[in-house]
Amino acid sequence: MAVAPATPPTVVASTHQRFNMECRKTARGAARACAPLQQQPDPAEKEIIANSELWTIHGKRYNMRDYVHMHPGGQHAILLGQGIDCTVLFETNHPFTERHRKMLAPYLHDELPEPTCVDESFNWKVTPFYDEVKLACIAHFSPRGDETSSEVQRNSKATWAAWLEHGIGLLLLALAFYAWCCDAFLSMLYFPALYFWVGSDLMHNGSHFAMSRKAWINTACSYLGVFHVQHHCWAL
Entry's InterPro entries (predicted)? Predict the structure, then answer.
């Protein structure tokens, strides 16, 4: 009887290696097939944010937290409207431009504002008196009639004459304060009067963002009169 030739050891080892590799591939494939699918975030799902962190404008809520540091009017101005229905602030603080409406779209969070947060005391769909007043203000700060919105905004801030007046007032106030520190008797009369005339006026105008288009200048002016009253009382 013929005897089959023995399989060389190297061939047997190679066959076992291929078999083991195929088994490992099969096992890995089965593991991937049985593994639970990773939950992918729904792009339409909104982040849950407390109402106190949002801005409600015309019945819609906006998440402008990333925009605060870019606000042209300064962080203090925009933070006044956070957590409340700031439609009135939004409209009345931007009477000379429409850019503020365009920048809102990317920051829309939802259209489900807190019912207790919505201010329905004014109908913004029909505003004949407000429109008339706004046109009168634009006409006043646009003497040529062809100024851009940026020029109208600049004209609505303190003029050079006003800055000169305030500069002289600050100089007199500094002299009065020095006299008061030196125990000058009459300084008890003219120092408080000058402070009320100069410091309080700057505080009032600065807290209404009326001194300059630069936020830091308005902030500095608003703090000059804080010994009379806190500027936050005039910030709205």
Answer: Cyt_B5-like_heme/steroid-bd, Cyt_B5-like_heme/steroid_sf, Cyt_B5_heme-BS, Fatty_acid_desaturase
